[in-house]
Amino acid sequence: MAEVIKLILEHLNKPPFNKNFNMITFDKLEPLQVLQVLNDVFTYIDDKNRKDLREELPEEMATRMLKFLSLLNYRPEVTLEEFQTGIITGDRFIVQATLYWILPRVEQLKTRAYLGKYLVKIDVPEEILQDDEVEKLHEEYLEYLEQFKEVHKATEALKSHTYTTADLKKDISKMETEYEQIVKNIDRKKVKVESLENLEDMMEAVTELRKEQERQDSFKEQKLSIRASIQTADTQSNRLMHQLRELRSTSGNLTVQTLMQRLEDEYSTIKRMVESTLPHEIEQKKKSCLNKQKVVLEPAMTDDDLRKLQADERTAQSQLQNLLQEKQAREDDDRGDEKLSMFRKQATMIARKKQDMKAALDSAREQLAEAEAEVNEKKMEMKKSGIDRVLTGNEFKAYVAQIKSKGNDYKAKRSQVHMISFHEQYVQIHEVSLLRIIKRL
Q1: Nearest CA to 426 among 27, 116, 22, 20?
Q2: pLDDT at 250
Protein backbone atom coordinates (compact mmCIF):
# COMPACT_ATOMS: atom_id res chain seq x y z
CA MET A 1 0.00 0.00 0.00
CA ALA A 2 2.89 2.36 0.72
CA GLU A 3 4.23 1.85 -2.81
CA VAL A 4 0.81 2.75 -4.23
CA ILE A 5 0.69 5.97 -2.22
CA LYS A 6 4.28 6.84 -3.23
CA LEU A 7 3.43 6.46 -6.91
CA ILE A 8 0.27 8.57 -6.49
CA LEU A 9 2.18 11.31 -4.67
CA GLU A 10 4.96 11.22 -7.26
CA HIS A 11 2.48 11.98 -10.05
CA LEU A 12 0.44 14.49 -8.04
CA ASN A 13 3.50 16.53 -7.08
CA LYS A 14 4.59 16.84 -10.73
CA PRO A 15 3.10 19.22 -13.31
CA PRO A 16 0.34 19.79 -14.20
CA PHE A 17 -1.07 19.05 -10.71
CA ASN A 18 1.71 20.43 -8.42
CA LYS A 19 -0.05 19.38 -5.21
CA ASN A 20 3.09 19.29 -2.97
CA PHE A 21 1.77 16.40 -0.86
CA ASN A 22 3.73 14.12 1.41
CA MET A 23 2.71 10.93 3.17
CA ILE A 24 1.50 12.78 6.28
CA THR A 25 -0.47 15.58 4.59
CA PHE A 26 -2.03 13.17 2.12
CA ASP A 27 -3.09 10.84 4.93
CA LYS A 28 -4.66 13.73 6.89
CA LEU A 29 -6.96 14.71 4.01
CA GLU A 30 -10.67 14.43 4.75
CA PRO A 31 -12.92 12.27 2.52
CA LEU A 32 -14.31 15.29 0.68
CA GLN A 33 -10.78 16.62 0.09
CA VAL A 34 -9.64 13.24 -1.26
CA LEU A 35 -12.59 13.25 -3.66
CA GLN A 36 -11.68 16.80 -4.70
CA VAL A 37 -8.15 15.59 -5.61
CA LEU A 38 -9.68 12.84 -7.75
CA ASN A 39 -11.99 15.39 -9.37
CA ASP A 40 -9.01 17.67 -10.12
CA VAL A 41 -7.42 14.78 -12.03
CA PHE A 42 -10.69 14.30 -13.91
CA THR A 43 -10.72 18.03 -14.70
CA TYR A 44 -7.26 17.82 -16.27
CA ILE A 45 -8.45 14.95 -18.49
CA ASP A 46 -11.74 16.66 -19.41
CA ASP A 47 -12.59 20.24 -18.37
CA LYS A 48 -16.30 19.40 -18.11
CA ASN A 49 -15.58 17.86 -14.69
CA ARG A 50 -14.60 21.24 -13.20
CA LYS A 51 -16.85 21.22 -10.11
CA ASP A 52 -16.77 22.30 -6.49
CA LEU A 53 -17.82 19.15 -4.63
CA ARG A 54 -19.13 21.20 -1.70
CA GLU A 55 -21.87 22.55 -3.96
CA GLU A 56 -22.69 19.21 -5.65
CA LEU A 57 -24.96 16.53 -4.26
CA PRO A 58 -23.21 13.21 -3.45
CA GLU A 59 -25.54 11.20 -5.70
CA GLU A 60 -24.97 13.52 -8.67
CA MET A 61 -21.21 13.47 -8.03
CA ALA A 62 -21.12 9.66 -7.93
CA THR A 63 -23.19 9.37 -11.12
CA ARG A 64 -20.96 11.84 -12.96
CA MET A 65 -17.73 10.14 -11.86
CA LEU A 66 -19.00 6.64 -12.68
CA LYS A 67 -20.08 7.78 -16.14
CA PHE A 68 -16.70 9.39 -16.79
CA LEU A 69 -14.79 6.33 -15.55
CA SER A 70 -16.84 4.08 -17.82
CA LEU A 71 -15.89 6.38 -20.71
CA LEU A 72 -12.24 5.86 -19.74
CA ASN A 73 -12.85 2.07 -19.72
CA TYR A 74 -11.97 1.72 -16.03
CA ARG A 75 -12.92 -1.60 -14.38
CA PRO A 76 -12.92 -1.45 -10.57
CA GLU A 77 -11.90 -4.49 -8.55
CA VAL A 78 -15.03 -4.29 -6.38
CA THR A 79 -18.68 -4.48 -7.38
CA LEU A 80 -20.45 -1.49 -8.87
CA GLU A 81 -22.58 -0.91 -5.75
CA GLU A 82 -19.53 -1.00 -3.45
CA PHE A 83 -17.65 1.33 -5.78
CA GLN A 84 -20.56 3.79 -5.88
CA THR A 85 -20.88 3.71 -2.09
CA GLY A 86 -17.13 4.25 -1.73
CA ILE A 87 -17.24 7.27 -4.05
CA ILE A 88 -20.16 8.81 -2.12
CA THR A 89 -18.49 8.27 1.27
CA GLY A 90 -14.99 9.17 0.07
CA ASP A 91 -13.51 5.72 0.82
CA ARG A 92 -9.74 6.23 0.80
CA PHE A 93 -8.92 2.76 -0.54
CA ILE A 94 -11.27 3.05 -3.54
CA VAL A 95 -10.11 6.57 -4.40
CA GLN A 96 -6.45 5.58 -4.12
CA ALA A 97 -6.99 2.54 -6.35
CA THR A 98 -8.65 4.78 -8.95
CA LEU A 99 -5.82 7.33 -8.80
CA TYR A 100 -3.25 4.52 -9.04
CA TRP A 101 -4.84 3.37 -12.31
CA ILE A 102 -5.37 6.85 -13.83
CA LEU A 103 -2.20 8.82 -13.03
CA PRO A 104 0.40 6.71 -14.93
CA ARG A 105 -1.68 6.88 -18.13
CA VAL A 106 -3.26 10.32 -17.77
CA GLU A 107 -2.17 11.55 -21.24
CA GLN A 108 -3.59 8.46 -22.94
CA LEU A 109 -6.83 8.85 -21.01
CA LYS A 110 -7.00 12.51 -22.04
CA THR A 111 -6.94 11.44 -25.69
CA ARG A 112 -9.48 8.70 -24.99
CA ALA A 113 -11.83 11.15 -23.28
CA TYR A 114 -11.54 13.52 -26.23
CA LEU A 115 -12.29 10.74 -28.72
CA GLY A 116 -15.02 9.23 -26.57
CA LYS A 117 -17.15 12.38 -26.89
CA TYR A 118 -17.30 11.86 -30.67
CA LEU A 119 -16.84 8.13 -31.25
CA VAL A 120 -19.50 6.77 -28.90
CA LYS A 121 -22.15 5.58 -31.31
CA ILE A 122 -25.78 6.51 -30.80
CA ASP A 123 -27.97 3.45 -30.29
CA VAL A 124 -30.94 3.81 -32.64
CA PRO A 125 -33.75 1.21 -32.34
CA GLU A 126 -34.52 -0.95 -35.36
CA GLU A 127 -38.10 0.35 -35.51
CA ILE A 128 -36.88 3.90 -36.08
CA LEU A 129 -34.27 2.80 -38.63
CA GLN A 130 -37.05 1.47 -40.85
CA ASP A 131 -37.72 5.05 -41.92
CA ASP A 132 -35.74 5.84 -45.09
CA GLU A 133 -34.72 9.35 -44.01
CA VAL A 134 -33.62 8.18 -40.57
CA GLU A 135 -31.63 5.34 -42.08
CA LYS A 136 -29.97 7.72 -44.54
CA LEU A 137 -29.05 10.12 -41.72
CA HIS A 138 -27.70 7.22 -39.64
CA GLU A 139 -25.51 6.05 -42.52
CA GLU A 140 -24.18 9.59 -43.00
CA TYR A 141 -23.51 9.74 -39.25
CA LEU A 142 -21.47 6.50 -39.41
CA GLU A 143 -19.55 7.82 -42.44
CA TYR A 144 -18.70 11.00 -40.52
CA LEU A 145 -17.44 8.88 -37.62
CA GLU A 146 -15.11 7.02 -39.97
CA GLN A 147 -13.92 10.28 -41.51
CA PHE A 148 -13.25 11.65 -38.02
CA LYS A 149 -11.15 8.57 -37.21
CA GLU A 150 -9.08 8.96 -40.38
CA VAL A 151 -8.56 12.69 -39.86
CA HIS A 152 -7.54 12.13 -36.24
CA LYS A 153 -5.04 9.44 -37.26
CA ALA A 154 -3.57 11.73 -39.91
CA THR A 155 -3.35 14.58 -37.40
CA GLU A 156 -1.58 12.41 -34.84
CA ALA A 157 0.81 11.17 -37.53
CA LEU A 158 1.65 14.75 -38.49
CA LYS A 159 2.19 15.66 -34.85
CA SER A 160 4.54 12.71 -34.33
CA HIS A 161 6.67 13.58 -37.41
CA THR A 162 8.70 16.72 -36.87
CA TYR A 163 10.83 17.83 -39.80
CA THR A 164 13.86 20.10 -39.45
CA THR A 165 15.41 22.34 -42.10
CA ALA A 166 18.33 19.94 -42.59
CA ASP A 167 15.95 17.03 -43.21
CA LEU A 168 14.02 19.03 -45.78
CA LYS A 169 17.24 20.04 -47.58
CA LYS A 170 18.32 16.39 -47.69
CA ASP A 171 14.95 15.35 -49.14
CA ILE A 172 15.14 18.12 -51.76
CA SER A 173 18.67 17.17 -52.84
CA LYS A 174 17.65 13.52 -52.98
CA MET A 175 14.62 14.33 -55.15
CA GLU A 176 16.80 16.47 -57.47
CA THR A 177 19.23 13.56 -57.89
CA GLU A 178 16.37 11.18 -58.65
CA TYR A 179 14.96 13.69 -61.14
CA GLU A 180 18.29 13.87 -62.99
CA GLN A 181 18.48 10.07 -63.11
CA ILE A 182 14.96 9.86 -64.49
CA VAL A 183 15.75 12.45 -67.20
CA LYS A 184 18.85 10.53 -68.24
CA ASN A 185 16.90 7.28 -68.32
CA ILE A 186 14.24 8.90 -70.51
CA ASP A 187 16.90 10.18 -72.91
CA ARG A 188 18.41 6.72 -73.22
CA LYS A 189 14.99 5.20 -73.87
CA LYS A 190 14.30 7.82 -76.55
CA VAL A 191 17.52 6.96 -78.37
CA LYS A 192 16.61 3.26 -78.34
CA VAL A 193 13.03 3.88 -79.48
CA GLU A 194 13.93 6.30 -82.30
CA SER A 195 16.08 3.64 -83.95
CA LEU A 196 13.04 1.38 -84.45
CA GLU A 197 11.49 1.18 -87.92
CA ASN A 198 7.74 1.05 -87.01
CA LEU A 199 7.89 3.71 -84.28
CA GLU A 200 4.66 5.46 -85.20
CA ASP A 201 2.66 2.22 -85.30
CA MET A 202 4.00 1.23 -81.89
CA MET A 203 3.18 4.65 -80.45
CA GLU A 204 -0.38 4.39 -81.74
CA ALA A 205 -0.67 0.90 -80.28
CA VAL A 206 0.63 2.13 -76.90
CA THR A 207 -1.86 5.01 -76.99
CA GLU A 208 -4.71 2.63 -77.74
CA LEU A 209 -3.52 0.31 -74.97
CA ARG A 210 -3.52 3.18 -72.47
CA LYS A 211 -7.03 4.20 -73.53
CA GLU A 212 -8.26 0.64 -73.15
CA GLN A 213 -6.69 0.40 -69.70
CA GLU A 214 -8.38 3.63 -68.68
CA ARG A 215 -11.72 2.33 -70.00
CA GLN A 216 -11.19 -0.89 -68.08
CA ASP A 217 -10.54 1.06 -64.88
CA SER A 218 -13.70 3.12 -65.43
CA PHE A 219 -15.67 -0.08 -66.02
CA LYS A 220 -14.35 -1.47 -62.76
CA GLU A 221 -15.44 1.66 -60.90
CA GLN A 222 -18.88 1.48 -62.54
CA LYS A 223 -19.11 -2.17 -61.56
CA LEU A 224 -18.34 -1.35 -57.94
CA SER A 225 -20.90 1.48 -57.87
CA ILE A 226 -23.55 -0.77 -59.45
CA ARG A 227 -22.84 -3.46 -56.82
CA ALA A 228 -23.19 -0.89 -54.04
CA SER A 229 -26.50 0.36 -55.49
CA ILE A 230 -27.71 -3.25 -55.84
CA GLN A 231 -26.87 -3.90 -52.19
CA THR A 232 -28.70 -0.75 -51.15
CA ALA A 233 -31.71 -1.73 -53.24
CA ASP A 234 -31.67 -5.25 -51.73
CA THR A 235 -31.58 -3.80 -48.24
CA GLN A 236 -34.51 -1.48 -48.96
CA SER A 237 -36.38 -4.32 -50.63
CA ASN A 238 -35.87 -6.60 -47.60
CA ARG A 239 -37.04 -3.84 -45.28
CA LEU A 240 -40.13 -3.13 -47.38
CA MET A 241 -40.93 -6.84 -47.57
CA HIS A 242 -40.63 -7.06 -43.80
CA GLN A 243 -43.01 -4.10 -43.43
CA LEU A 244 -45.39 -5.70 -45.93
CA ARG A 245 -45.41 -8.96 -44.00
CA GLU A 246 -46.10 -7.09 -40.76
CA LEU A 247 -48.95 -5.17 -42.38
CA ARG A 248 -50.43 -8.37 -43.76
CA SER A 249 -50.17 -10.12 -40.42
CA THR A 250 -51.85 -7.19 -38.61
CA SER A 251 -54.50 -6.57 -41.27
CA GLY A 252 -56.07 -10.05 -40.98
CA ASN A 253 -59.27 -10.28 -43.03
CA LEU A 254 -59.34 -6.61 -44.00
CA THR A 255 -60.41 -5.84 -47.54
CA VAL A 256 -59.63 -2.82 -49.63
CA GLN A 257 -63.11 -1.38 -49.11
CA THR A 258 -63.02 -1.70 -45.32
CA LEU A 259 -59.53 -0.24 -45.19
CA MET A 260 -60.58 2.70 -47.37
CA GLN A 261 -63.68 3.22 -45.24
CA ARG A 262 -61.57 3.22 -42.08
CA LEU A 263 -59.15 5.72 -43.57
CA GLU A 264 -62.02 7.97 -44.71
CA ASP A 265 -63.56 7.88 -41.23
CA GLU A 266 -60.24 8.78 -39.63
CA TYR A 267 -59.71 11.56 -42.14
CA SER A 268 -63.20 13.00 -41.55
CA THR A 269 -62.72 12.86 -37.78
CA ILE A 270 -59.36 14.63 -37.97
CA LYS A 271 -60.73 17.19 -40.42
CA ARG A 272 -63.70 17.95 -38.16
CA MET A 273 -61.40 18.40 -35.19
CA VAL A 274 -59.08 20.69 -37.16
CA GLU A 275 -61.86 22.81 -38.67
CA SER A 276 -64.32 23.12 -35.79
CA THR A 277 -63.27 21.69 -32.45
CA LEU A 278 -59.66 22.79 -32.20
CA PRO A 279 -60.18 26.44 -33.33
CA HIS A 280 -63.03 26.85 -30.81
CA GLU A 281 -60.92 25.40 -28.01
CA ILE A 282 -57.93 27.54 -29.01
CA GLU A 283 -60.12 30.68 -28.99
CA GLN A 284 -61.50 29.81 -25.56
CA LYS A 285 -57.98 29.21 -24.23
CA LYS A 286 -56.81 32.56 -25.63
CA LYS A 287 -59.73 34.40 -24.00
CA SER A 288 -59.08 32.65 -20.71
CA CYS A 289 -55.39 33.56 -20.89
CA LEU A 290 -56.20 37.20 -21.65
CA ASN A 291 -58.64 37.41 -18.72
CA LYS A 292 -56.11 35.85 -16.40
CA GLN A 293 -53.41 38.20 -17.60
CA LYS A 294 -55.68 41.18 -16.96
CA VAL A 295 -56.44 39.91 -13.46
CA VAL A 296 -52.74 39.35 -12.77
CA LEU A 297 -51.75 42.79 -14.06
CA GLU A 298 -54.41 44.63 -12.05
CA PRO A 299 -53.13 45.82 -8.67
CA ALA A 300 -54.75 44.58 -5.48
CA MET A 301 -57.57 46.80 -4.18
CA THR A 302 -56.68 48.64 -0.98
CA ASP A 303 -58.54 51.01 1.37
CA ASP A 304 -57.23 53.98 -0.63
CA ASP A 305 -58.83 52.56 -3.78
CA LEU A 306 -62.17 52.18 -1.99
CA ARG A 307 -62.02 55.74 -0.73
CA LYS A 308 -61.22 56.95 -4.25
CA LEU A 309 -64.24 55.09 -5.66
CA GLN A 310 -66.48 56.62 -3.00
CA ALA A 311 -65.16 60.11 -3.80
CA ASP A 312 -65.82 59.51 -7.52
CA GLU A 313 -69.35 58.43 -6.67
CA ARG A 314 -69.99 61.58 -4.63
CA THR A 315 -68.60 63.74 -7.46
CA ALA A 316 -70.86 62.02 -9.98
CA GLN A 317 -73.90 62.56 -7.72
CA SER A 318 -73.14 66.27 -7.30
CA GLN A 319 -72.71 66.67 -11.06
CA LEU A 320 -76.01 64.91 -11.61
CA GLN A 321 -77.76 67.22 -9.14
CA ASN A 322 -76.33 70.28 -10.87
CA LEU A 323 -77.54 69.01 -14.23
CA LEU A 324 -81.03 68.41 -12.84
CA GLN A 325 -81.16 71.91 -11.36
CA GLU A 326 -80.03 73.47 -14.63
CA LYS A 327 -82.65 71.50 -16.51
CA GLN A 328 -85.42 72.58 -14.13
CA ALA A 329 -84.36 76.24 -14.34
CA ARG A 330 -84.30 76.14 -18.13
CA GLU A 331 -87.72 74.50 -18.26
CA ASP A 332 -89.13 77.23 -16.00
CA ASP A 333 -87.58 80.02 -18.08
CA ASP A 334 -88.54 78.55 -21.44
CA ARG A 335 -92.08 77.54 -20.56
CA GLY A 336 -94.57 79.04 -23.00
CA ASP A 337 -91.82 80.30 -25.30
CA GLU A 338 -91.91 78.48 -28.66
CA LYS A 339 -88.70 80.17 -29.82
CA LEU A 340 -86.63 78.25 -27.31
CA SER A 341 -87.00 74.86 -29.00
CA MET A 342 -83.26 74.62 -29.29
CA PHE A 343 -82.92 74.69 -25.50
CA ARG A 344 -85.57 72.03 -25.25
CA LYS A 345 -83.52 69.81 -27.49
CA GLN A 346 -80.54 70.47 -25.26
CA ALA A 347 -82.67 69.59 -22.27
CA THR A 348 -83.58 66.32 -23.98
CA MET A 349 -79.95 65.61 -24.57
CA ILE A 350 -79.19 66.43 -20.94
CA ALA A 351 -81.96 64.08 -19.85
CA ARG A 352 -80.43 61.34 -21.92
CA LYS A 353 -77.04 62.11 -20.40
CA LYS A 354 -78.70 61.99 -17.01
CA GLN A 355 -80.01 58.52 -17.69
CA ASP A 356 -76.59 57.42 -18.90
CA MET A 357 -74.94 58.92 -15.83
CA LYS A 358 -77.51 57.23 -13.62
CA ALA A 359 -76.82 53.88 -15.25
CA ALA A 360 -73.07 54.45 -14.82
CA LEU A 361 -73.68 55.45 -11.20
CA ASP A 362 -75.66 52.28 -10.55
CA SER A 363 -72.92 50.21 -12.13
CA ALA A 364 -70.29 51.99 -10.00
CA ARG A 365 -72.37 51.35 -6.88
CA GLU A 366 -72.66 47.67 -7.74
CA GLN A 367 -68.91 47.45 -8.30
CA LEU A 368 -68.33 49.29 -5.01
CA ALA A 369 -70.62 46.89 -3.17
CA GLU A 370 -68.86 43.88 -4.71
CA ALA A 371 -65.47 45.35 -3.82
CA GLU A 372 -66.56 46.04 -0.24
CA ALA A 373 -67.94 42.51 0.06
CA GLU A 374 -64.71 41.06 -1.30
CA VAL A 375 -62.66 43.22 1.11
CA ASN A 376 -64.79 42.09 4.03
CA GLU A 377 -64.43 38.48 2.96
CA LYS A 378 -60.65 38.83 2.71
CA LYS A 379 -60.55 40.51 6.13
CA MET A 380 -62.53 37.61 7.63
CA GLU A 381 -60.15 35.10 6.05
CA MET A 382 -57.17 37.06 7.40
CA LYS A 383 -58.66 37.10 10.89
CA LYS A 384 -59.27 33.34 10.72
CA SER A 385 -55.66 32.73 9.64
CA GLY A 386 -54.32 34.96 12.44
CA ILE A 387 -53.26 37.93 10.30
CA ASP A 388 -54.21 41.28 11.78
CA ARG A 389 -53.46 43.49 8.79
CA VAL A 390 -52.20 43.53 5.19
CA LEU A 391 -48.52 44.12 4.64
CA THR A 392 -47.56 47.32 2.86
CA GLY A 393 -44.97 47.50 0.08
CA ASN A 394 -41.96 48.14 2.32
CA GLU A 395 -43.13 45.60 4.90
CA PHE A 396 -43.59 42.98 2.19
CA LYS A 397 -40.06 43.65 0.86
CA ALA A 398 -38.68 43.29 4.39
CA TYR A 399 -40.62 40.00 4.74
CA VAL A 400 -39.14 38.73 1.45
CA ALA A 401 -35.63 39.72 2.58
CA GLN A 402 -36.21 37.86 5.84
CA ILE A 403 -37.29 34.74 3.92
CA LYS A 404 -34.17 34.97 1.73
CA SER A 405 -31.90 35.27 4.76
CA LYS A 406 -33.59 32.24 6.33
CA GLY A 407 -33.07 30.37 3.04
CA ASN A 408 -29.36 31.23 3.10
CA ASP A 409 -29.17 30.08 6.72
CA TYR A 410 -30.88 26.84 5.70
CA LYS A 411 -28.37 26.24 2.88
CA ALA A 412 -25.43 26.93 5.21
CA LYS A 413 -26.80 24.55 7.86
CA ARG A 414 -27.50 21.97 5.17
CA SER A 415 -23.88 22.13 4.00
CA GLN A 416 -22.80 21.77 7.66
CA VAL A 417 -25.02 18.69 8.02
CA HIS A 418 -23.52 17.35 4.79
CA MET A 419 -19.97 17.80 6.14
CA ILE A 420 -20.95 16.23 9.47
CA SER A 421 -22.40 13.21 7.64
CA PHE A 422 -19.16 12.89 5.65
CA HIS A 423 -17.13 13.02 8.89
CA GLU A 424 -19.40 10.41 10.52
CA GLN A 425 -19.08 8.06 7.56
CA TYR A 426 -15.33 8.52 7.52
CA VAL A 427 -15.14 7.78 11.26
CA GLN A 428 -17.25 4.66 10.77
CA ILE A 429 -15.04 3.45 7.94
CA HIS A 430 -11.92 4.19 9.98
CA GLU A 431 -13.36 2.28 12.96
CA VAL A 432 -14.15 -0.71 10.75
CA SER A 433 -10.60 -0.69 9.36
CA LEU A 434 -9.19 -0.47 12.90
CA LEU A 435 -11.37 -3.38 14.02
CA ARG A 436 -10.14 -5.42 11.07
CA ILE A 437 -6.51 -4.65 11.98
CA ILE A 438 -7.18 -5.58 15.64
CA LYS A 439 -8.79 -8.88 14.56
CA ARG A 440 -5.78 -9.67 12.40
CA LEU A 441 -3.44 -8.99 15.33
Answers
A1: 27
A2: 64
